[in-house]
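Moderator note: this is an archived Q&A kept for reference. The question asked for a predicted structure of one protein chain; the sequence and the answer are reproduced below.
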Amino acid sequence: MKNNNLKTIFFLSFIIITSALKAQELVTSSKAIALALENNHGIKIADKNLEVAENNTSIYNSGYLPTLTGNAGATYNLDNIEAEFTNGESTTLNNAESSRYNASLNLNYVLFDGLGRKYNYQRLKEQYQLTELQARETIENTITQLFSIYYSVSQSIENVNALEETLAISKDRLKRSKYEYEYGQVTKLSVLNAEVDINNDSINLLTARQQLQSAKRDLNFVLGNAIDGDFNVDTNVTFITLLQKEALLEKAKARNVLILQANKTIDIGHLDIKTNKAAYLPTLGLTGTYGWNRNNNNQASFVAVSTNTGLSGGLNLSWNIFDGGTTKTRLQNAKINLENSQLQKEQVELSVIRDFNNAWDDYQNKLAIFRAQEINIITAQNNFENSKEKFKLGRVNSIEFRQAQLNLLNVEVNKNRAKYEAKLAEILLLQLGGELLEVKL
């Protein structure tokens, strides 16, 4: 039964390895960013919101253009009339018909509205810039999420490679144990231990491969499923060695997207106050009409048919002297909202500085851990090679050799994790510093 299980595991491993050997597309970090910017649904939605904000800043939404409306109508009357004229005569009309027709073009243009539309138009432009910053925040968050998953794929690939090497070593050990058992140099227990270790290594490899495929699906999801078929990612990582804490902190204060959004909200708040103050001023409007009217009167009228065409124009002045306090209330609320926006900015600034300092310390710590793991891998490799030679000479038993093998595997896995955690910490630091979209990752 145990041999059948081993055969099944070997068969599954062979299938997976054969599939992995097929030509795979290499998705570099720069290509992943390009695919995400083009296909990620969250970024697409942000772009559509930006289009709406841009449309709102059009001259057609500004209130500066006049309005022109057309009107037309027709009326038909059928009346019974008893009429007495001034000369004393009288008449009675039954079913007297009359009709009226009219058409007109009406022009309205606001010459002055207390500068309300000016401030409102400026507000729409500021709102567009705020939407741009919100789109940038979406892009930054998406890129950070992208690299979190991208490095998860990279780490899984390196873990699979380490497990494949471990499995190959265990297979060699099993061959050696069987050979030594045949010549009476070891007991059957040594062979059984080697088979158990191969079984465990095969299971770990299958699990790692399944985790790799899941991570790839997650990455392709962030990319908007832009990749057809299997793919590979680049496992090479380079760190930005010239980062200076104070310089990057100053950039964070000036360029962090959350702080920039808070500043823009304050600018909009100032315009809201000006817009509400404009309601205290009068409005002056220009009106113009070109009209045509035709009346077909009944027999009781002195004029049977009349047709009028003409042009009229005028100025309208309106001043809402007192509106029950509505304008005053809106102005007070606008001032309070501005104060809240200023307080929120102060809170955001404190939060960004705190998060930056934490991110800097986390980055330095994880970078130091990675450097230490690089040293550990050399030590573990030397220890394993030394144990391997002694195992061949019979100076260490299979249990000691297996322990050295597992120590090397654990160190390799820890080094891989430390490398990608350090790089991801660097990306989070760059995002807080407002530099994520400015540097090559």
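Archived answer notes: The longest strand covers residues 90-112.
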